[in-house]
From TrEMBL:
Protein name: Dihydrolipoamide acetyltransferase component of pyruvate dehydrogenase complex
Domain of life from the UniProt record: Bacteria
rRNA-binding recorded as keyword: no
Organism of derivation: Deinococcus soli
Keyword Flavoprotein set for record: no
Length: 493
């Protein structure tokens, strides 16, 4: 019997979601025949069979998040009938788990499965990790008052680990353990493949404080009971001195409207976006600065070179100029080109300039990355922008094309918004929102009222890493370069 393991599909990917099985139990499988579709960091790939034989058993169901190197299927290489079930030790959570259990696990992931998959640098912590929906503060794990606890160290349980040797745990559990000064190797995990969840950390802490351990494994089954007690919800928002986390928000259908609602599992691209947004909400101190830029000279410059670009087979938009201006400004204001390593409490200062470009697709928002923008010409960037946008729409991007950004840009103006408060694409320190170019009257340097091509800029930044004054100066530098395209071309070389 051959175990099919989830391989390392890209550097730093630690788990993937089984989107769809392409074969059924009992089917005869050829060597390299696609078995299932796996999603990692919003990239979907087909996993081929490593051997020929008969699919004896699927160990993971559609929608399950599976750790790298975990078994997802058994194949009988003899070609006989389906084999006996695998030992329980090798099988992850059953595919038919109740939706409430799956939803509970996803809520506790706090940026988990897909967030860990591709946006982290090699060796970075998986809870320090494209975009743009805010989450309610009710979902944040509140740990005030718990940091002073010094739990006694019980005998260490046997712990499953990742490929890099670290204990398997969801990001929120790691964060909570740090706040509690708790060694995760002392905590027994109840999640898939032994992964430590928030409830496991809380249960362990309760035992060490001489309290009765909360019945955390039964939490999914208790969710309806919580919903039936609306009076408890306000109390959950203001935790007592113990600092227990806010209960997950439980939606209740208004009476009489049950037949007018449909429930769709949070899966695939939407779950990846949800995890990324929740990580951004929990692990950044986000604030905003707004400015505007006069693009009249850039509009004229682009009109002059547009024919040359077309002759070179390039569709020239304004984005390549903006990317070049951002790269130049990042060199002068390096704090906006950093990340924060939550595990080591270190600021990661980067001397390379990879710009993430938010692209709206039918499946959801994704952020392909233009690498080494400072080393590429405007025409090179124009070609790359077009290529990445087309392949993003078709779902053809590779995992490495979605990883490694140091700063991001989102073009809100393409859909007509006046201005926005974009959500940071963690682990980046900042994101720049660009908006519609509109003709507006302004007063020029000679006190004349003239018509200009104006555009709003909105910069979201992590206030832990970037001071407000430096963020404002960064915006002014971007404005200076875009308002003087000849100067931009000189400084960007």
């Amino acid at each position: 019997m051959k175990e099919v393991l989830l391989p390392e599909l890209a550097e730093s990917v630690v788990e993937g979601e089984i989107l769809k099985w392409l074969v059924q139990e009992g089917d005869t499988i050829a060597l390299e025949q696609p078995l299932c579709e796996v999603m990692t960091d919003k990239v979907t790939v087909e996993l081929p069979s490593p051997v020929a034989g008969v699919l004896s058993r699927r160990l993971a169901g559609e929608g399950d998040v599976v750790a790298v190197h975990a078994a997802i299927a058994l194949i009988d290489e003899t070609g006989g009938a389906a084999a006996a079930p695998a030992p329980a030790a090798t099988a992850p959570a059953p595919a038919a788990a109740p939706l409430s259990t799956q939803a509970q696990e996803e809520r506790e992931q706090v940026g988990g499965s897909i967030v860990e998959a591709g946006h982290l640098q090699k060796g970075a912590d998986d809870d320090s990790t494209s975009l743009f929906k805010a989450f309610s503060s009710d979902e944040k794990v509140q740990v005030q008052g718990l940091g002073a606890r010094q739990p006694a160290a019980p005998a260490a349980p046997t712990q499953p680990t990742r490929a890099d040797g670290r204990v398997l745990a969801v990001p929120a559990a790691r964060q909570l353990a740090r706040e509690l000064n708790l060694d995760l190797t002392q905590v027994r995990g109840s999640g898939p493949n032994g992964r430590i969840r928030v409830s496991d950390v809380l249960a362990h802490q309760g035992i060490n404080q001489g309290q009765s351990a909360p019945a955390q494994p039964a939490a999914p089954a208790q969710a309806p009971a919580q919903a039936a007690q609306p009076a408890a919800a306000p109390a959950a928002k203001a935790p007592a001195a113990g600092g227990l986390p806010v209960a997950p928000v439980q939606y209740r259908t208004p009476k009489g409207y049950e037949h007018l609602e449909d429930r769709v599992p949070l899966r695939g691209m939407r779950r990846a976006i949800s995890n990324q947004m929740q990580a951004s909400h929990l692990y950044t101190v986000r604030t905003l600065t707004v400015d505007e830029v006069n693009l009249s000279k850039l509009v004229e410059f682009r009109a002059r070179v547009k024919d040359d670009a077309a002759a070179a087979g390039v569709k020239l938009s304004y984005l390549p100029f903006i990317f070049k201006a951002v790269a130049v400004a990042l060199r002068k204001f390096p704090s906006l080109n950093t990340s924060f390593d939550e595990a080591t409490q270190e600021i990661v200062q980067k001397r390379y300039y990879n710009i993430g470009m938010a692209v709206a697709t039918d499946a959801g928002l994704t952020v392909p990355v233009l690498k080494d923008v400072n080393h590429k010409s405007v025409f090179d960037l124009a070609r790359e922008v077009s290529d990445l946008a087309v392949r993003a729409q078709g779902g053809k991007l590779q995992a490495d094309e979605l990883a490694g950004s140091t700063f991001s840009v989102t073009n809100i103006g393409s859909i007509g918004a006046l201005f926005s408060f974009p959500i940071i694409n963690v682990p980046d320190a900042a994101i720049l929102g660009i908006h519609s170019i509109q003709k507006r009257p302004i007063v020029d340097e000679y006190d004349n009222i003239v018509v200009a091509h104006m555009m709003y800029l909105s910069l979201s930044f992590d206030h832990r890493l970037v001071d407000g004054a430096e963020a404002a100066r960064f915006c002014k530098e971007v404005i200076r370069l875009l308002e003087n395209p000849d100067r931009l071309m000189l400084e960007a070389m």
